[in-house]
Amino acid sequence: MTRSTKETYLEFPLKSWWAERTEWVERALDEALPEQGSYHGNVGEMMRYCLFSGGKRFRPILAYGAAEALEKPGRIATAAACAYEMIHCFSLAHDDLPCMDDDDLRRGKPTAHKVYGESGALLAGDALSILAFEKIIELPKDVSAEVGLALVRDLAEASGYQGMVGGQVLDMACQSGGVDHAALERVHRAKTGALIRGSVRAGALLAGADPRQLAALTEYGELVGLVFQLTDDILDAQEDPEEVSFVSLLGLEETQRLVRESTRRALEHLSIFGPSADALRAMAVFLEDRKG
After folding, report:
1. How far apart are CA 29 and CA 62, in angstroms?
2. 15-to-52, 164, 175, 219, 270 alpha-carbon distances in Å
3. Please, what is the average pLDDT of the chain?
4. CA-based Rg of the chain, rounded to a whole angstrom?
5. Nearest one of 201, 266, 202, 279 to 231, comparing CA atoms
6. What is the rounded distance in angstroms from the CA atom of residue 158 to the CA atom of residue 246?
7. CA angle (126, 86, 266) in 5-degree steps
8. Which segments of 140-240 does DSSP mark as H helices, in order?
9. Is the pTM of this model over 0.90?
10. Across-strand partners of 105?
11. What pLDDT score does 6 carry?
12. pLDDT tens string 30-42
């Protein structure tokens, strides 16, 4: 990617665009899981703790961006955006458990099991994962049942044994060593990338993407998911250089090269779209350069 091309993408008002859509999804999540809702015991409180623990709402923002790339109102992706964020937050609550990563803090706050106990974190995550499927079938007007079925299928694939859960299994096996670059990429395409790709596809499906457009956006989502993990590893290597990661396997310079190459390819897949896809282009550049 040339410097001039990069500068063009950076002219897009990503910060304000992102902030507005974050407000959309925050409001929708609050309405889906109201603080004063009718719950059994404190399950609602536990679910909200997991769901509103901070974060950039990256997956919902991608869903909005994909819909808008097809010149449709981003809001048509709101229910799907909520569903993918619920799955993501459920996975974080479970990842933090003592039987998994055993983390005490996430984003500067005590993890769910530190506040509500292991059983509370487990049940809150379970409830969020199920609520996600209830949410994603809230289809906008004029969206067909066929699209609804595709959304459900994609969410199940992205979050289940073929996607996030399967990737976590592979990741746990990799921590014992003996992993190579190809194996680590398989881990993260499933563990991290599947939900990112699925979020993009959800926005595209709701916007009525034709097969060519859906294929291009799927490839974009796949590559952006890889860049997300590569840059995560670069940032994490500063704190734990011994952890199994792209940086520990390939070195910092090669990992940075992969980031640039994957970003370039992601942008190429958007070449069939006009300025309506500039938000997705700006997000790819943001990921390439992110510092946190």
Report:
1. 16
2. 20, 28, 36, 24, 20
3. 93
4. 19
5. 266
6. 22
7. 130
8. 145-159, 164-174, 181-191, 193-206, 211-237
9. yes
10. 110
11. 65
12. 999 999 999 999 9
